[in-house]
Amino acid sequence: MNVTIEEQIRSDQERTLVVSGEVDAFTAPQLREKLMPLCQENCKVYLNLSQVDYMDSTGLGVLIGAFKKLRSQRGRLILTGVSPRLKRLLNITGLSEILEIEDRV
Questions:
Q1: 65 Cβ contact list (under 8 Å, min separation 6)
Q2: Which residues belong to any copy of the STAS domain (predicted)?
Q3: Domain annotation for the chain: domains and CATH numbers
Q4: Is the pTM of this model over 0.85?
């Protein structure tokens, strides 16, 4: 399965990436390629995951990498539109305690 990633500009310091499809070992590098350049000082990056059907540990690794980079630069990674299935995965891995999750899209 493929993944599509669309960038939406909210402001100079706020960006949204809308992710659709599956984020796995094959597609996670595409997400990393789009996400990491947005991780700049004092920036808020919203990751809309409402159309993500599946995410594996490789995808979770991308989220952790972006979170760490943003945190070191006083930025924020905010997950939105997290499905119950993905929320369960984040809870099981303990990432729901670390990552910022908003219910709204």
A1: 32, 36
A2: 17-105
A3: 3-102 (3.30.750.24)
A4: yes
Structure-block tokens of residue 17: 């990436």
Residue type at 38 in one-letter notation: L
With 0-12 / 13-18 / 19 or more C-beta atoms within 10 angstroms meaning exposed / middle / buried, residue 78 is: middle
In contact, 48 and 78? CB cutoff 8 Å:
no
Task: Determine whether 41 is exposed, middle or buried from the number of CB atoms within 10 Å of its CB (0-12, 13-18, 19+).
Answer: exposed
Q: CA 35 to CA 45: how far, in whole Å? A: 8
Of the candidates 51, 44, 50, the one whose C-alpha atom is nearest the C-alpha of residue 16 is 44
